[in-house]
Structure to design on (83 residues):
């Protein structure tokens, strides 16, 4: 996948993790919970305003390009990942 779409996915992942943490749902599916935990291992929850470019790049490099995340869709659905 080209760099720009991967960066956009990283932005969406950071925003989604923040939304989940803020909403605090009773439960998440296995895939979303796996991704949220992986994001929180490299990016802390946003408590105050701060630039998020470093967070996005951390997610892009550490998570979206990791073998664990690339293999997750196959593990959950049996289908190959487009990541």
């Amino acid at each position: 996948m080209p760099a720009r779409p991967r960066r956009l996915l990283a932005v969406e992942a950071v925003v989604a993790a923040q939304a989940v943490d803020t909403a605090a749902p009773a439960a998440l599916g296995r895939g979303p919970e796996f991704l949220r935990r992986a994001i929180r291992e490299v990016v802390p929850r946003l408590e105050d305003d701060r630039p998020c470019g470093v967070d996005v790049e951390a997610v892009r490099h550490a998570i979206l390009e990791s073998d664990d995340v690339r293999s997750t869709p196959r593990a959950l659905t049996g289908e190959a990942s487009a990541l």
